[in-house]
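Document type: protein sequence-to-structure record

Subject area: structural biology

Format: plain text, a pair of labelled lines:
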Amino acid sequence: MFALILFACVGSLLAVAQLKCTNENVSPEIRQQMLDFHNDHRHGEGKPPLEWDCELEQKAETVFEPENGLVNTGKIKGHAVNDYAYLPPAAGEIKFNNDVKPALEYWWSKKRAFYNNMANGSNKKVGCTYQVFDYLVNVVCVYMPTL
C-alpha cells in the first residue's frame, strides 16, 4: 500500500515537472491542474486525454493587450480559443480553485462553443495562461489541432 501511494506521489511530481514552459506567469502546478481538469472532464465524455503544449500556451499569451487589460483572441488564427474574464473577490496571488477553475467550470457548463473546444475529440493538445490587469483576471486556453 505504501509503495502504491509513493508511486502515485512521485508520478504526480514528475508530471508537474514536465509542464515547465518559459512563461513564468503560470506555475507548473497550475498548468497541471488546468490539464487535469480538461482530461478529467473529457474522460467522463469518453474523449482521449489532451497533452499540454508550451507553444499553445505562448500563443495564448499573445492575446493580452497590456495597455488596457483587454483580450483580443482574433490574434490567434487557425486554433480554437476559450477566454474568460472576471473580477475576483480579493486581490493577491492567483490560485487554481479561486481564480482559474471557475473559468474552466464555466466553459464546461455552457455546452456550446467553449464546451465544444474542451470536449472536441479531435483536439490533442492545449495550452492555457492567465493575466491579472488591475483587478481583472483573464484566463485563455488555445486548442490544437488547427481549425
User: Anything to note?
Assistant: The helical segments are 2-18, 28-44, 54-61, 96-110, 113-119. The chain is about 45% helix and 20% strand. The two ends are 46 Å apart (CA to CA).
